[in-house]
Each structure stands twice: as structure tokens, then as C-alpha cells.
Amino acid sequence: MSIVTQKKILDESYKILISESRIQERLQEIGSEIEQACEGQTPILIGVLNGGFIVLADLIRYINIDCEIDFIRISSYGDEKESSGHIKVLKPLSADIKGRHVIVVEDIVDSGLSLQFLKKMLSAFEPASLRIATLLHKKSRMKVNIPIDFVGFEIEDKFVIGYGLDDRQLKRNLRSIYIVDN
Ligand code: IMP
Ligand code: MG
Q1: pLDDT tens, position by position, 114-127
Q2: In this structure, which ligand is nearest to the CA of 118?
Q3: Which of 144, 153, 82, 80 is nearest to 115 (CA)?
């Protein structure tokens, strides 16, 4: 149960989709899966900014093997609610991932266009392996066929906020995930 109430930033119209405790339970399970899948390796987890910063921060604390982190920032939606498919790198990687076991950590995969772009871009650096983890997946919206190795929750086609996910850059600091009803 959350010890923090967030009434000041919660709109009455928001409906809770995934509670803080359920998110943490699921991340713990995914952390164990990653740990097993990466036995004997020192993976590098790449958080996709901005949304992925909270998932990455919580997830690495459920992975009990040595791992590194880095971040990449790409533009996808801007302030819109639909992916344009025109994606730019706003902050490149700092780490050299050649020969490394890489896990990309996303907040949400919607059309999959951002992921398709990222996969192609990161593959060019010749990592030893490239896997994908996402907390949320709107499976019915996928426009491209990309296998996702670790999925937290498959969700319906609704716009969601909280736990890193924003509505026009706000609400990322909500501890649970909510559906914006409009
Ligand atoms: P895709 O390229 O369509 O898969 O979009 C992925 C990105 O769009 C995510 O990393 C999010 O930043 C953003 N996004 C997609 N769906 C939502 C949503 O329901 N709420 C907030 N952001 C979203
Ligand atoms: Mg994202």
C-alpha cells in the first residue's frame, strides 16, 4: 500500500489501471527473468528517456547480478498522443555497446515505431545481443513485428499516464498507472 497520497496531481476523471504495488511485484518478476537470462554476463541496460527513467531505476534494483546502465533520448510523440514515425535522437548513448549484452528498457511500446528505429540504430553498434524490456505493451496497436523479450503488462488501447508516462510532459510523478478518460 502506498504511504504517499498524490491527490494534488490526480484528476478525478483518472481511472487506476495498475497500482504501485502491482507494478513493483511485476518488476521483481521481470528482474528475476533478466537475471536468469543474463547469467554469466554483465548486461548494459539502456533506459529510453524520458518515460523509461523510473522503470529502469526500479528494475535494476531487482536484478541481482552486475549490470551497467546508460540512457538514450529519442523524440517520438512530442506533445502529441500518436507516434509520427519520424524519430530523432535527442541524446545519444554514452557507452560503447560493441560486443555487449544490451537490454533496452522502455516504459511503453505502442505502435512499435520507436522500437523499430532504436533496434536498427543500436544493432549498427554490433552488440553481442540486443533484447527489449517494456513495462507496458499495447499489443493491438503494433504496426511492426518486433519480438519483445520481457513484457510487464499487456494493456488495452487507452492513453495512460503515471510512473514515468506523461500527458503533455506532466503526471510522470504519479506512483501508479492511470487511464486518462477523454
Ligand atoms: P511507439 O513508437 O508508438 O511505440 O511509441 C512509444 C512511445 O510513445 C513511448 O515510449 C511513450 O513515450 C509514448 N506513448 C505511447 N503510448 C502512450 C500512452 O498511453 N501514454 C503516454 N505515452 C505514450
Ligand atoms: Mg518512451
Answers
A1: 999 999 999 999 99
A2: 1
A3: 144
